[in-house]
Every structure is written in structure tokens, then in C-alpha cells.
Amino acid sequence: MRWLAVGALIVVLALVLGRKRQGEVRVPTDPSEVLEHVASSSSSGRELKALEAAARAEPKSLERAVAAARKALELAQRENDPRYPGRAQAALARWWALEQPPPEVVQLRAKVRLAQHDFEGARSDLLQLEDPGPALAALELRTGRYPQARAACGADPVCHARVDSLTGRAREAKAALAASSSLEGLVALGEVSERAGDDAGAEAAYRAALKLAPENAAVMNALADLLLATQRPGEVEPLLGARFSNDAALLRLAIAERMKAGKPGAYAQMLRWRSAEVSRPREQARFALEVEGDAERALELAAKSWALQKEPVDSRVLLEAALAAKRPAQARAAAQWVLDSGATEPRLIALARAVLASAP
After folding, report:
1. pLDDT along the chain (360 residues), means of 10
2. Distances in Å between the alpha carbon of 19 and those of 5, 203, 252?
């Protein structure tokens, strides 16, 4: 009931505050107009509820529990929503704390722990598996352990391209993925193109990925971040404007709104009303810095995030926060790490050099 109330509030706030024109409220006249996408009401959301109900009906059935957990994690990846991993954990509760759970539970538990930023727990689970494969490589990439990530890639060319793009070979990685046509390959092509300094190529790859998966929140958020980085905030709302139930999308809408208006607006208020802060340190840091302009708070949160994971966005937020707070020394280690790792993304390199030039 709480979420229903919050959802209603969000829609009302969007109509009243977010859609004003010349002092008037825009009231939709087309009954088919989409005001908000709600994952739980989609066919996949209904399927998850049915699988969860089946698992509750037979609480000893590992097969049913695993089916529900897998569906929850599928939705977590597609919707970029941190609530779904908790539902996966709930489905596996009977086997979760066993010393030697079935292998399928270990694999799913690792994915849940990775989503919840329990990186050590996730790594421990993955190393129990005979073939941890891409999941272990993804974990090592997130935590900046590039040699370990490459070793875990095996024969996966997309995985190797992602490692290359973070260790001085972004142009080669982009060339290796240039002919990609799968969703995974196109998303990776977008990432490595950004790291190679090819914003136009990155945008083309993300838009091609969206043609394959129009509802994929992670791809939409990646494209929104590129639009923000290239100073195109006006294009963010048309991309994300019907996704008010997704905190990650709402954060980007709030940032775009701040860039256009010069101050926090309705989307920022939605985030504040939904929960005191967005859920993860990285997103909290971005909200503090890019929406509220609180550089000191952002620096504290960004440092916490960077201690856990070292994806390019974590480094970027920490470096920006340190410069904005006029405390470059607090990001010196991160700046040096960026340069030493072989990063080639022009915006990130410029930030790292600015921090090192400013740090006493």
C-alpha cells in the first residue's frame, strides 16, 4: 500500500509540478497516453508474481524457488531496480544460509550479493562454481581488478573488449566490437566507444541496443548519462519521462532538470519524497553533487562508493566532487589510479589531471 500511495503521489506531482506551461496544469486528454511505466504491472511483473506464488505454495520445491529468483534477477537487470534482488533472496530463503547450498542457489546468491554490493560474498560464491565465467569477470571489472577480470573472461570476446577498454586499448576494443548486433555486444560497444572518446559512436550503439530492447532501463540510463555528459539535458526527459518508478531514471531526470533550470525541481522533490535519498552511495553522491550542489556531502559519499567499486563513473563522481568541494587531495589516489590503470576516456582523464594539478 505504501508504494501505491507513493506511486500516486509521483504521478500527481509530475502532472502538477513537472508539466506546467504558463501557469496552467497540463491534463492529458488522450486515454492511451502513458504517464508511467510500472514494472510490476507488466507481463514480466505478473509472471514473477505467479512464480513467487507457486514457490510459496510448495516451499520445499527448489525448482520453483529457483525459477522465481531467476525471474526476479532478470527484471532487476532489465529495470535497473534494486528491489528485485531482495525478492530473489526471499525466494531462496530456505537454502540461502546453508553451508553447501545447491550449485544453482550458489550462482543466484552470487548475483544477488553482487547487486547488493556484497562483493566479497559474491566472489566467495562464484569461486565455488566450476565455471563462474562472465559473472566473475563482471565482478572483477566493477572492483578494478583487471588482471583477474581478464583471466575470468575465458574465450568471451565481449568480456575481453571491456577489459581492453579500461586498460589502454579502448580503440582496439571498439574495433573488435564494431560489427556487434546482439544486445550485449551493442551495449559493450557503447561503453567502449565512450572510453575511446567517440561519443557519436557510443550514442549510435546505445540507440541500436534500444531498438532490440526498448524497455531496457540500464541501456536507457547509459544513454541518458551520455546525453548529460555531452550537455544535452533537454533530450533526457523524452527518453526517460515515463519511468518515474525507477530511482535511477528519476535521478537522471533530476540532473537534467537542474542543468536546464539551474536549481532542483520537481523530479528532485519526487526523489526526496519517495525516500530520504536514492539508495546507493554512487547515486546518493550524484544526487548531492549534480542536483543539490552539496559538494562536501557528495565527496563523502563518492569516497565511500569508490572504496567499494571502481567503475569509471565512480571515479568521475569522486573527482568532480573533490574539485567542487575544493578538496582535491582527497581524490589524489583515485586520480592517480585512473591514470595508472590505462584509462583513455577524455573527460575522465581531464578530471584526473585537474585533481593532480590542484592537489597540494
Report:
1. 44 44 43 50 84 96 97 88 91 94 96 93 94 91 96 95 97 97 97 98 98 93 98 96 84 96 94 67 94 97 95 97 98 97 96 94
2. 20, 27, 17
Q: For residue 336, what are the domain limits?
A: 279-360
Task: Give the end of a domain, one of 130, 158, 192.
Answer: 130
Q: What angle do CA 114, 119, 120 make, to 5 degrees?
A: 135
319, three cell numbers: 573527482
Neighbouring residues of 76: CB distance < 8 A, sequence distance ≥ 6: 82, 83, 84, 85, 88, 115
**CA pair distance 309, 334, nearest whole angstrom:** 11
Asked if the structure places residue 192 within a domain, the reply is no
Amino acid letter for position 181: S
Burial zone of 175 (CB within 10 Å; 0-12 exposed, 13-18 middle, 19+ buried)? middle
Q: Is the dihedral of CA 127, 132, 135, 137 positive or negative?
A: positive
Q: Is the dihedral of CA 43, 45, 49, 51 positive or negative?
A: positive
Query: What is the predicted pLDDT for the residue at 43?
Result: 78
The CA radius of gyration of the chain, in Å to the nearest whole number, is 21
- Count how many domains the chain has: 2
Domain end call among 96, 130, 164: 130
Please say whether the beta carbons of 215 and 9 come within 8 A: no
pLDDT of residue 18: 45
Which pLDDT score, from 0 to 100, does residue 275 have? 60
pLDDT at position 79: 81
Q: Which three cell numbers stand for residue 133?
A: 565465467
Single-letter residue type at 56 = R
